[in-house]
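Data deposition worksheet. Section B asks for the primary sequence of the deposited chain exactly as it was used as input, without tags or linkers unless they were present during the calculation. Section C holds the resulting structure in token form. Section D is free text for depositor observations; keep each observation to a single sentence. Incomplete worksheets are returned to the depositor.
Section A, Depositor: J.P.
Section B:
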Amino acid sequence: MTTDGALARLIRSSADRTTAAGAEGCDLCAAPVADEHAHLYDTGQEEVRCVCGPCSVLFAGAGAGDGHYRLVPRRRVRLPKVDTAVLGVPVGLVFFVPRTDGTVTAQGPSPAGAMRWEVDATAWQELAGTCPQLAGVQPDVEALLVNTVHGLDHHWIVPVDDCYRMVALVRREWRGLSGGGQVWPAVERFFEDLTERP
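Section C:
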């Protein structure tokens, strides 16, 4: 693309707008973003990036961004109980992300951020056979989010930005060696506040 292309002009014009002090800005063009804004998943860095409305439109189509950036969908689906024991991850608060290359990762929050494990892809396929909604999870940008801590039974298909919000919440609220008295009530509120979205 040349520097005179429409995309370049759009990015330059958006970058001319300054972000208000302390407000979040678009990670592509630096324009201010609303409290509720879209996210892109950066496949190279494996990170979620904030994006303004105009920039999000650029990545809405399949194949946009040449696969480097993928628009994170908004849908949330509450699932009936899913027996994740077949996946071999011995923690009760975890999210599973199928990847474009066919692998599956499990990530769980900790005081230091997300812990990560590789999950057997065949086991994921077996699980998807018992829960057909899992077959429709979009690689890299959607996850199976599970919370069975303290007898809870939450199973959701969510956008990955919800998962990273949950990881940040655990990291922020964790105290001492066992988490303290704030982290688990905060996690319960997080799950209570999840709502289904198409």
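Section D:
The longest strand covers residues 104-110.
DSSP finds five helices and nine strands in the chain.
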